Amino acid sequence: MAPDVSGRVTKLAVRDNQRVHRDEVLYVIDQEPYRYARDQTLAQLHNLQAQLAIETTQVESQVSHAGASRSGVPGAQARLDLAQRTLARLTPLERNGFVTVEQLDQARTEVATAKAALDEAQQAAMGARQAVRSIAPLEAAVAGAHSALSLAERNLRVTVVRAPCDGIVTALDVSAGEYAVAGRPLFTIVNTEEWWAVGNFRETQLAGTQTGQNAEVYLVGMTGRHVHGIVDSLNAGVLPDEGTTADGLPRVPRSLNWVRIAQRFPVRVKLIDPPPDLVRIGETVSVVIDR
């Protein structure tokens, strides 16, 4: 059982060869630095969220201002169109003396003024549009802070190491106060929820062997006692003595062995309700399959 985070073991709740139950607390890594890291990440998230709220309000104001500036462009365009039409009507009348030169000059001035007003309105609208800032960077920062907070909360949570199954603690070589490194096992839990036996059968004995067949597993150390089981799977292959490669070349032995021994293949048998006092990892057994 290896911790997911490094730290000093502040609590060791088990001893060697003790039986434990699923989700039972096994040991606790010092939570203080991970609690501080969680609180710091949470504060950073709140700060970014506050900045995002302020920036959103400012952007909304900028968008409103840009909309108001843009609404002035159609009016300026309409005034220019009117001034140009008026000038176009007065120009032919000047040759016949129906309008004075002063009236024509005034119309030309109106056109020039309307053009200037339109240019000013368009520039104002463009400037207001360009002034609208994007809140996308802050939104990305808030999303990143959420992920960092989730990681910090996860690191704090896994400081409490629990049993993944019912089992027996073995090979315990640590005590409270020692420093544990993430990924380095402190002890092993033998899973007692499911037990398996592996029988190595000669290839000449595999004919007719199928998953689901009944099997009896006899324990060498317990004369006359056996455990019922079900064939779970047949191994797909084993490493051959010949035909392997080394440094990119096939390995072929120089000597010849005229006596050929049948290869053996593992057959996995699931034990059904084995007595707890009978089964151990590495125990020698004999497997008999009911074909």
UniProtKB/TrEMBL annotation:
Q: Keywords of this protein's UniProt record, alphabetized?
A: Coiled coil
* Stretches assigned to the Multidrug resistance protein MdtA-like barrel-sandwich hybrid domain: 3-191
Superkingdom of this protein's organism: Bacteria
Q: Where is the p-hydroxybenzoic acid efflux pump subunit AaeA-like beta-barrel domain?
A: 198-289
A Pfam family that the UniProt record links to this protein? Beta-barrel_AAEA
Q: Which residues form a coiled coil?
A: 104-131
What name does UniProt use for this protein? Answer: Efflux RND transporter periplasmic adaptor subunit
Native organism: Komagataeibacter swingsii
